[in-house]
Each structure stands twice: as C-alpha cells, then as structure tokens.
C-alpha cells in the first residue's frame, strides 16, 4: 500500500463536518493512550537515575516529587532495566483502532521504539508539559543531565527533544542497543525518507545526536485534526496559493492547446495507478512536469488554477522575488523551503516567469557563472524528483534551459486568441447587468484588435467602471475604445 495514496484516502475521509469531528475525537483518544504509555516508560526510565546517590540529603525525594507532579501524580516506581524494556515492549493495542494515527502505525508495522520516538516529537505540540521532567538538575554537576539531550527554543518555553533524548528514552545507556538504535535516524529510514520527521542539524563539529528531532507540520496536522493547514505566505514559505471562482467555461483556448492539456488531466486522474498499481515506479520518474509558454494574459495561470480546482488540489505560485538571491546558495535554500513543504502534499507548484529560475546556462567565464550553473543543476534535480505536478510558465519557450525541457512531459503553447476566440471572450466577460451601446460591434472589435484574454478583461473592467461613474448600465463605445487604447499602450503598440 502506497503511503501517499493511503494518506490522501485518510484525509479524504474527513470530508463533511461530522466526519471531521469523528476523526478529531478518534485521533485524540488514540494519542491520549499513546501519551499515557509514553509517560509510564519515561517515568520508569527517569526513576533509575533518581535512585542514584545524590550529595544533598532530601534531593532524591525532591526529584521524585517532581516526577509525580509531571506524570499526573502516579507513584514513581523503582524498576530495573529488564522491567523498563518489558514496559516499552507492550504499548497500547491499536489493531482495532480507527484513528489516522493507528492506521499509520499499522501501515508501517512500527516497533515500540519507533512509536516512542513518534510520541516524543508530537509532545511539544500537544502536551509540552510532559517533557518538563527532562529539565531535572544533575546535582553532582549542578546542571542538566547530558544523556537527556534537548534544546531550548527561541520562543517555546518547554523542552525540545533531540536525537539524544530519543536514544535515552528508547535504550537508556545500553551501548549495544544505542548503536543499533542510531540506524533509526538514517536518511533511509521511513521517518526521514517519507518526510515524517526531520533533523535540525547543529552547526560546527557538535555531535549529530545533539540535533533537534522535529515532526513535520504535515504529520502534526494529520495526527491531530486529520487535515492539512494552509501555510502562510512568508520568507519561510515564499509561495502564494492560487484560487479562482472561474470555471473552464471562462477559459477560451484553441483546440490544440485544449487537447494537450487533456494529457495533464489524465495524469492527475490516473498517474498513481500507473506508477503503483501497474508497477512502473521503478521505470518512470515521479510526478509530472509541464511547460506553459506564450504571451501574457493567454490563460497560463488560470489553467494551472483550474487544474487544481478540478482535482481538489492546492496550487501554489512561487514568488520568485523572494526566492532568487544574489548570494551564493541562498536561492537553493529558499526554493528548498517550498519543495520540502510541498513534496508529500500533492500540491501543484506553479513557477511563473520561470526563465528567471530555469534559464539557459552560460559559458563559464568567472566564478559567478560557475555557481549560477550549479544552481541550475540543483533546480534540475529538485524539479525532477518532485512527485506531483510542477508547471513552468514563460513568455518565451527558448528562454528555458534545454536540460529542463528534455525532462518535461508536456510543452504547451498558449497563443494569443484568434478572432473567433476573442469574440467568445468579449461576449462572456461583460456583466449580465449591463448593455452595450448600439454602436458597439463585438464581432468587428474581435477581428480588428489583437488582445489576449487578460487584456480583454482589463478593457471590460475599465469600461464598466466608467459606466458606474456615470451611474449608467450602458457600456459606451468611447469608454471601450479608451480601454483598448490603454492595453495597446502597455504593450508599446498604437491603434
């Protein structure tokens, strides 16, 4: 079972208010049981350390009282390592549980140790106070316990776990088990290969186990509300969601363009079946890449938005002004923020004016050219690995590097509309609340003035506003011609 398909099915099951409420309640109950089990394991693990002699009389009881407050007043028992292992090996039975979290655990056949790590990374978001126990002071050294790991956030006041924290909870100080458990944090483990967890690496030569261990927002949402939150446009996510109330009837395209777009629709509907049910995932690259090219206003952006609307997929336009940087390596970092957030959500990524990012490589004449070409090589690989639909849009096809075009499944031209198409646009754009002056012939205007769909919309808006200013519902010929003249001037043309 493909986890991407399975996860999409889980989210789709939350449609409707009642279903969404049921999912939230099921998730909450399941997580409550998991957290209680986690607390018992940590309670016992920590108690082993508290049993050690401390220099100041009464400190042991003070720490035990601290644990009791953290873990809901349960008595902190004295246990040996075998008992700790026994407890950690008997987590709650989720075989009959219908929550998303339970389905996820069963899908991956997760071990108790993997489940402990999952709960550990969830706790800062659902019950951060339970990790306060790791703030205990080592009274021999007058500071925290090294083996607890953990870091302090900039705004979060609680304990943030590291790989060291996870190792302590799962295997304690058993060196053999510790070395084996460290394989869990390799990039090939499903935690990281499927972007469930990620590691906030430490700078310098600090041990890798001191790096922060974080659950991605996608899975925090999935395990709690059962649906994804919409990311806010910012420097950390330089992309804006595209939405429209328009339909395919509002988009007028020539026949060749429409036929070519149909291939993308077919892939969006059957692409996963081709890869996973037909066993083609080892032969075909994931995802689908398309290049839209043509003059401004010919429907490239609207087409991408309508594809998302048709298949209930979010469409995000990458803001190149916030992505492209003159500093070496910064463009890649900025773009990686988008790809990392998008790669498991089946988003459609739309790169408008894509030649700014995916333009032709230059001959190397200095170090700047060398790094610019390295940047294009990174973008090429990152785009090729993106598992969903990515659309590059440009005014000129030949501005895109050939290395990209060779890896693109569809190259679709969006030409300026012909007279018959322009007439459809003129007729469909005016409000039904207005009438046209008797002297206006849309047929003649369509044949005489070459305008793209976006320009026609601008003309209609201008003429309609002028009518409103006159407190009229009649579109005048003069206002219509003024609007056309404005659009021609934008393009450096004259009537």
UniProtKB/TrEMBL annotation:
InterPro entries attached to this UniProt entry: 26S_Proteasome_ATPase, AAA+_ATPase, ATPase_AAA_core, P-loop_NTPase
Reading the lineage from the top rank, the first entry is: Bacteria
Sorted alphabetically, the keyword list is: ATP-binding, Nucleotide-binding
Q: Which Pfam families match?
A: AAA
UniProt keyword Nucleotide-binding present: yes
Q: Where is the AAA+ ATPase domain?
A: 286-418
The record ties this protein, via SMART domains, to: AAA (SM00382)
Q: Which SUPFAM superfamilies match?
A: P-loop containing nucleoside triphosphate hydrolases
**Cross-referenced PANTHER family, in alphabetical order?**
26S PROTEASOME REGULATORY SUBUNIT
Q: Which family does it belong to?
A: Belongs to the AAA ATPase family.
User: What protein name does the entry list?
Assistant: AAA+ ATPase domain-containing protein
Origin organism is Dyadobacter arcticus
């Amino acid at each position: 079972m493909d986890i991407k398909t399975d996860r999409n099915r889980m989210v789709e099951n939350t449609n409707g208010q009642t279903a969404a409420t049921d999912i939230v309640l099921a998730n909450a109950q399941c997580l409550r049981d998991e957290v209680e089990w986690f607390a018992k394991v940590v309670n016992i693990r920590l108690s082993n350390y508290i049993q050690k002699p401390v220099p100041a009389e009464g400190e042991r009881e003070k720490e035990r009282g601290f644990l009791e407050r953290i873990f809901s007043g349960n008595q902190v028992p004295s246990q040996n390592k075998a008992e700790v292992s026994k407890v950690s090996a008997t987590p709650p039975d989720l075989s009959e549980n219908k929550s998303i979290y339970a389905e996820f655990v069963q899908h991956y056949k997760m071990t108790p140790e993997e489940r402990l790590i999952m709960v550990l990374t969830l706790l800062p978001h659902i019950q951060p106070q339970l990790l306060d126990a790791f703030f205990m002071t080592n009274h021999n050294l007058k500071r925290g316990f090294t083996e607890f790991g953990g870091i302090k956030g900039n705004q979060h006041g609680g304990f943030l776990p590291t790989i060291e924290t996870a190792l302590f909870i799962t295997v304690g100080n058993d060196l053999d088990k510790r070395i084996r458990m460290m394989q869990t944090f390799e990039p090939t483990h499903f935690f990281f290969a499927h972007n469930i967890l990620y590691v906030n690496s430490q700078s310098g030569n600090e041990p890798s186990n001191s790096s922060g261990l974080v659950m991605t927002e996608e899975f925090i949402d999935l395990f709690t509300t059962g649906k994804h939150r919409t990311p806010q446009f910012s420097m950390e996510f330089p992309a804006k969601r595209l939405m429209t109330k328009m339909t395919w009837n509002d988009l007028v395209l020539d026949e060749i363009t429409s036929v070519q777009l149909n291939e993308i629709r077919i892939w969006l509907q059957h692409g996963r079946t081709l890869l996973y049910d037909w066993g083609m995932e080892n032969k075909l690259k994931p995802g689908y890449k398309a290049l839209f090219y043509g003059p401004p206003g010919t429907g490239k952006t609207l087409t991408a938005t309508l594809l998302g609307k048709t298949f209930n997929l979010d469409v995000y336009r990458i803001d190149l002004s916030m992505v492209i940087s003159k500093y070496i390596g910064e463009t890649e970092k900025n773009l990686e923020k988008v790809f990392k957030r998008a790669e498991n959500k089946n988003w459609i990524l739309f790169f408008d004016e894509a030649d700014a990012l995916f333009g032709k490589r230059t001959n190397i004449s200095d170090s700047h050219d060398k790094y610019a070409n390295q940047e294009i090589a990174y973008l090429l690989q990152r785009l090729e690995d993106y598992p969903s639909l990515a659309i590059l849009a440009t005014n000129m096809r030949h501005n895109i590097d050939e290395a990209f075009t060779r890896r693109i499944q569809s190259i679709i031209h969006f030409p300026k509309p012909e007279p018959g198409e322009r007439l459809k646009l003129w007729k469909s754009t005016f409000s039904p609340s207005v009438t046209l002056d008797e002297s206006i012939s849309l047929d003649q205007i369509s044949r005489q003035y070459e305008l793209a769909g976006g320009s026609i919309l601008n003309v209609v808006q201008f003429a309609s506003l002028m009518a409103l200013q006159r407190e009229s519902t009649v579109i005048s010929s003069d206002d219509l011609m003024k609007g056309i003249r404005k659009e021609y001037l934008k393009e450096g043309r004259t009537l």
